[in-house]
Inverse folding.
């Protein structure tokens, strides 16, 4: 890792100001992805702005709109929040499936969605639930937020402050972990709302995406059986030594069925 | 007197306290005043000419002391990394041993090949400067698989090795067994059944949790070099440094291997990095330290296995094995590592009989150069490869003939009254009761209840399979003369010094090295047992050529069988001398003195003197037979065994396969081993557990993979799949003992067993589960992806 | 740039200046000589470097020294008080849950965090929790056994 300026921000405004002022600054939340990347010298920022001291970014609040989770709320805090687990258990289940206990003790929701790793768990849940990503500047729907491989709609000087997850009627997240990294080889989040069904897939493609034909099938009949006969094309799916594209395509179907079963459980 | 800590006691380890409190002392924990840091510039290409190295910019960076290259090594006449075991080809020619320079001599042959080293005041400065060293490479065509390297027109890796062939070896050689090949072929022709398989033994990365590290300290005033290094055999490293590479006299070189965080073979060898830091320290007159990053370990530590084998088993109408023919292509990597040529040959061919009375066996092995990291001994070293093919083809035979896997084995076992058993591939097996071991494993597994368990699994949507293996291995390397005939370039005895202090406290200097094996406990148990001294009054010293007279180190499950036997011999000498001193003190004839429970006693009387008093008399010889005996009580023994030892065992594995996802889960794992006599059952169980984990890892998860050109794909734990706690079951282990007659302890060795026996047991179980779907073959590792593809292929009739 | 940090280390207030890119593990090992915390990988997977920060287990190779200003850091060296072994240390010893010892400090610190959250974990829960700690020697069998044995001990002491 190369040296950089380290700045511990006191507030969102302070951090945003600092971020806007520097061309090559990066935000440090839990650091579970950023610090390994810096160690590998994949990134060489001039400054790290540590968000760890900003209380307004932390915490879980429930309202009629759903669950408001602060950007630097750790995975362990999300997984351990009893009210949240009662209201939207799929978020807790996804949080406790991330990485290992030490990653969950440090890693944050905001860090995960802002990084948009193609195999991360939270993007699937955020997209599956149709969450709203709230930044220091605006509100962005998950459908617009996750743009591509490690790419989001965040602009220069913009930072995630909170994610608002709406309350589904029921939802499930089934994950097939990569045996080495424990990221999702394939993860599928299925959520049923009055307005319809959403199905989001992580791990399989270059970025998290929705599976419209699965959604349509489940809208008519929210059961695993409704997915029978549907298949997923392997075209454009990730293909690596852990899983071929065809195997991933197959797993998307299996995980979708399991996610539905979890939602119905 | 031994405080209940004698031979056979499950004594908790004396070495634990420092590790559980964070007070261990590993190489990277050691820092010396004014030390500088080495960082290696490594080739990013699998094969390239090095046209030029420009260190100008690096040398101007802050804190940089030197940038050294292969040309500097050559100028200082530092020798190439040596090969410790020579192999002879079918035609009588020696294996091609191209020089392996510690820093490239104009050509690089694998990704990670060291090209230059930067020495700087901080590690960060060295790393930064290494990035600034400008190496001009001219890339060459390259190849990573052994089969591809043998094809016509494949890139040539060494000029001296035509067709990339290092050796073409046969076993037994025609000079020793003129008819072996013809008889084997004849038996195959005349057989009632022939079962053949093509098997891949997947390449593995050893992955000791402590990355390698070396700290060299040359004192220009005394000319003394001290090397702290992560080694399983510091004396061997000193020997190679002194005779082959640095060429310094032994008395000027001290090699210390302090606490070492696992080895599994990967810390046996004389590596480029430790040589370079020694040389750099001598050149610059400052201590130089290097600690590998894990990603360097993936590139630079010798890797294991990587065989491609065709095996044919001939059976008669009663399912008795009549012949076994084996043809193997072994991937040696880019150079011949220290024991790289010996592992797929002399550690492999002589074990191809397994535990069966197969009369005719013939094998050939082609050792092939590729643009990959060199391969060498990794836990088991040749024996897992032999066991895997035997136990896979035997199981396949059972499946094809519709026999119970246990029954086909029973029918072919060497029987207890046939020991010592001369195998047709040159080994004289010591002892064993294979059926007894099989019965023990079956009993623990609940063999008869399998069908019921299979039904229960099916009810839960899972396919259940059971697999069995029965391994035998050669441990206790080695009888030096036999090894010498097979090409070993060093002796393989072991050394122990027993130093009894005036108060009766005992120190043992052993040439073996414990990096997890627990010698500080088990060797102390032997001393406590034999001398009747309190366990707490015994200290085992190892890992320092400055303190231990000599030794060959720890590998090949040799420490107890060879090192422990050297210790027993030295203890016998101590007792013998003590007997003479006691005879003098008790005014009796030495022949009348008995020794037991720490007391020298005149036979048939109550006149006795304690061991501690005899020790005191030896050091304060006021009343002492000085005319006949020297004062002092310290004895050294070298033990060179008359034969290898042959642990064996039966493993049974049950798995469940989720056919939707291809996930294999182990539901039961039984290991019933015969290790001969056991010193500490708790330690032995631990060794078995660890071996099983690595064997299961090989079968289900681990695979070191390269692109066809030789770029490493599995260069970190993000890609190389290491077994974790939630990947493994709890194990059921048991032992059944037939002592070996070939050493005074009757001990055979237990360090590698699990890694040898587990892979075929697991794979046989996976295939047993999948056969109903039509799956006939699957190579290791049986990852979910691989299993799913195998099922798909079977379903679509491929 | 250097960052000044003050924090509680194994119960004592300490201060140090650290480079901005200095990792917590390097600060512990090189500045404070606490070499019980090990580095076994460079991708935050092996867990040999696990310590506690404000009571929670973290990988000290994946935290900047700068981030610990005002925190409480506990390492393996601080786990046993007055020469008394912590129940986990005692159980690792009694059940032969370590061989080479390299992963052991991280393993014990991780398990200590588990037992704080879940005083009586099942075998499966222990195995799940230890996902972030690699051991190449023991096959985990005896580690799992030791953690559960320590849980028994701790449970009794607490009741």
């Amino acid at each position: 890792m190369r040296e950089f300026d380290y700045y511990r921000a006191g507030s969102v405004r302070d951090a945003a100001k600092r971020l806007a002022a520097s061309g090559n600054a990066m935000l440090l939340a839990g650091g579970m992805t950023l610090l390994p990347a810096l160690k590998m010298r994949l990134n060489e920022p001039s400054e790290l702005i540590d968000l760890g001291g900003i209380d307004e970014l932390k915490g879980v609040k429930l309202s009629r709109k759903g669950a408001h989770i602060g950007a630097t709320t750790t995975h362990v805090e999300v997984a351990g929040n009893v009210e949240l687990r009662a209201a939207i258990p799929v978020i807790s289940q996804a949080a406790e499936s991330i990485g290992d206990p030490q990653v969950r003790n440090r890693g944050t929701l905001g860090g995960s969605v802002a990084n948009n790793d193609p195999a991360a768990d939270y993007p699937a849940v955020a997209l599956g639930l149709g969450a709203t990503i709230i930044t220091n500047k605006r509100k962005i729907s998950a459908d617009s937020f996750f743009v591509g491989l490690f790419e989001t709609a965040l602009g220069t000087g913009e930072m995630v402050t909170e994610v608002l997850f709406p309350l589904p009627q029921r939802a499930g997240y089934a994950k097939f972990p990569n045996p080495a990294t424990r990221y999702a080889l394939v993860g599928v989040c299925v959520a049923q709302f009055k307005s319809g069904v959403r199905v989001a897939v992580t791990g399989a493609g270059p970025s998290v995406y929705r599976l419209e034909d699965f959604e349509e099938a489940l809208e008519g009949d929210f059961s695993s059986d409704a997915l029978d006969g549907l298949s997923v094309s392997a075209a454009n799916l990730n293909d690596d030594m852990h899983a071929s594209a065809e195997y991933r395509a197959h797993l998307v179907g299996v995980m979708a069925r399991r996610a539905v079963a979890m939602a119905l459980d | 007197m031994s405080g209940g800590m004698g031979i056979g006691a499950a004594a908790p380890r004396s070495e634990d306290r420092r590790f559980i409190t964070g007070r261990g002392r590993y190489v990277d924990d050691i820092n010396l005043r004014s030390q500088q840091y080495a960082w290696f510039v490594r080739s990013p290409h699998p094969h390239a000419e090095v046209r030029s190295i420009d260190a100008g910019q690096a040398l101007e960076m802050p804190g940089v002391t030197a940038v050294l290259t292969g040309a500097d090594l050559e100028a200082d006449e530092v020798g190439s990394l040596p090969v410790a075991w020579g192999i002879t080809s079918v035609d009588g020619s020696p294996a091609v041993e191209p020089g392996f320079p510690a820093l490239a001599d104009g050509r690089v042959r694998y990704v990670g090949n060291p090209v230059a080293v930067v020495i700087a005041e901080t590690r960060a400065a060295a790393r930064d400067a290494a990035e600034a060293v400008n190496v001009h490479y001219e890339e060459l065509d390259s190849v990573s698989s052994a089969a591809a390297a043998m094809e016509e027109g494949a890139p040539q890796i060494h000029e001296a090795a035509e067709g990339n062939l290092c050796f073409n070896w046969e076993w037994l050689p025609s000079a020793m067994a003129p008819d072996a090949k013809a008889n084997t072929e004849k038996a195959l022709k005349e057989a009632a059944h022939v079962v053949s398989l093509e098997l891949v033994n997947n390449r593995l990365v050893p992955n000791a949790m402590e990355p390698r590290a070396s700290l060299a300290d040359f004192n220009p005033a005394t000319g003394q070099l001290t090397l702290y290094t992560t080694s399983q055999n510091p004396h061997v490293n000193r020997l190679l440094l002194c005779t082959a590479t640095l060429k310094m006299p032994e008395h000027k070189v001290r090699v210390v291997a302090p606490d070492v965080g696992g080895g599994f073979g990967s810390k046996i060898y004389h590596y480029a990095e430790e040589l370079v830091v020694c040389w750099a320290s001598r050149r610059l007159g400052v201590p130089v330290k290097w600690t590998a990053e894990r990603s360097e370990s993936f590139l630079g530590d010798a890797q294991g296995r990587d065989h491609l084998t065709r095996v044919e088993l001939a059976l008669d109408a009663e399912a008795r094995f009549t012949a076994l023919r084996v043809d193997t292509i072994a991937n040696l990597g880019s150079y011949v590592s220290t024991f790289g040529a010996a592992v797929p040959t002399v550690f492999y061919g002589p074990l191809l009989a397994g535990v069966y009375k197969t009369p005719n066996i013939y094998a050939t092995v082609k050792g092939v150069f590729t643009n990959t990291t060199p391969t060498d001994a990794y836990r088991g070293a040749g024996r897992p490869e032999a066991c895997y093919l035997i136990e896979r083809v035997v199981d396949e035979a059972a499946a094809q003939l519709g026999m119970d896997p246990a029954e086909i084995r029973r029918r072919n076992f060497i029987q207890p009254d046939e020991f010592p058993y001369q195998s047709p591939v040159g080994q004289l097996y010591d002892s064993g009761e294979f059926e007894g071991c099989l019965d023990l494993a079956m009993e623990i597994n609940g063999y008869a209840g399998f069908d019921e368990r299979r039904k229960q699994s099916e009810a839960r949507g899972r396919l259940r399979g059971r697999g069995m293996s029965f391994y035998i291995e050669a441990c206790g390397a080695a009888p030096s003369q036999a090894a010498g005939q097979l090409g070993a370039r060093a002796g393989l005895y072991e050394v122990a010094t027993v130093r009894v202090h005036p108060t009766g406290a005992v120190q043992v200097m052993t040439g073996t090295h414990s990096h997890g094996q627990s010698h500080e406990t088990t060797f102390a148990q032997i001393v406590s047992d034999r001398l009747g001294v309190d366990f707490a009054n015994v200290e085992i010293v190892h890992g320092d050529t400055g303190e231990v007279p000599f030794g060959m180190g720890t590998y090949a499950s040799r420490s107890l069988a060879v090192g422990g036997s050297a210790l027993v011999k030295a203890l016998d000498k101590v007792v013998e001398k003590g007997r003479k001193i006691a005879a003098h003190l008790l005014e009796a004839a030495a022949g009348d003195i008995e020794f037991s429970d720490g007391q020298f006693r005149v036979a048939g009387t109550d006149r006795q003197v304690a061991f501690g008093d005899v020790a005191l008399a030896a050091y304060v010889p006021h009343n002492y037979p000085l005319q006949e005996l020297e004062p002092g009580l310290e004895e050294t023994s070298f033990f060179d065994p008359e034969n290898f030892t042959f642990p064996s065992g039966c493993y049974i594995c049950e798995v469940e396969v989720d056919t939707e996802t291809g996930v294999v889960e182990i539901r039961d794992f039984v290991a019933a081993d015969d290790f001969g006599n056991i010193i500490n059952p708790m330690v032995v169980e631990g060794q078995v557990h660890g071996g099983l984990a690595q064997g299961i890892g090989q079968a289900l998860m681990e695979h070191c993979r390269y692109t066809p050109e030789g770029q490493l794909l599995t260069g970190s734990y993000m890609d190389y799949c290491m077994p974790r706690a939630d990947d493994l079951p709890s194990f059921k282990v048991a032992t059944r003992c037939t002592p070996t007659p070939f050493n005074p302890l009757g001990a055979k060795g237990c360090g590698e067993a699990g890694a040898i026996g587990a892979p075929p047991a697991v794979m046989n179980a996976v295939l047993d589960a999948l056969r109903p779907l039509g799956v006939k073959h699957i190579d290791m590792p049986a990852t979910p992806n691989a299993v799913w593809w195998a099922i798909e292929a079977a379903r679509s009739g491929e | 740039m250097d960052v000044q940090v003050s924090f509680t280390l194994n119960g004592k207030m300490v201060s140090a200046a650290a480079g901005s890119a200095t990792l917590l593990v390097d600060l512990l090992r090189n500045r404070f000589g606490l070499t019980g915390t090990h580095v076994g990988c460079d991708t935050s997977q092996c867990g040999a470097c696990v310590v506690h920060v404000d009571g929670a287990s973290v990988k000290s190779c994946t935290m900047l020294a700068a981030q610990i200003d005002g925190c409480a850091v506990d390492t393996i060296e601080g786990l046993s008080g007055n020469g008394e072994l912590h129940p986990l240390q005692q159980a690792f010893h009694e059940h032969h849950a370590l061989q080479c010892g390299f992963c052991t400090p991280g393993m014990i610190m991780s398990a200590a965090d588990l037992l704080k959250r879940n005083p009586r974990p099942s075998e499966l829960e222990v195995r799940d929790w230890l996902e972030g700690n690699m051991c190449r020697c023991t096959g985990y069998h005896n580690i799992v056994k030791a953690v559960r044995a320590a849980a028994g001990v701790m449970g009794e002491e607490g009741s």
Summary: The longest strand of chain A covers residues 184-193. Chain A has a mean pLDDT of 96. The radius of gyration of chain A is 18 Å. The interface with chain B takes residues 2, 176, 179-181, 241-244, 247, 250-251, 254 of chain A (CB under 8 Å).
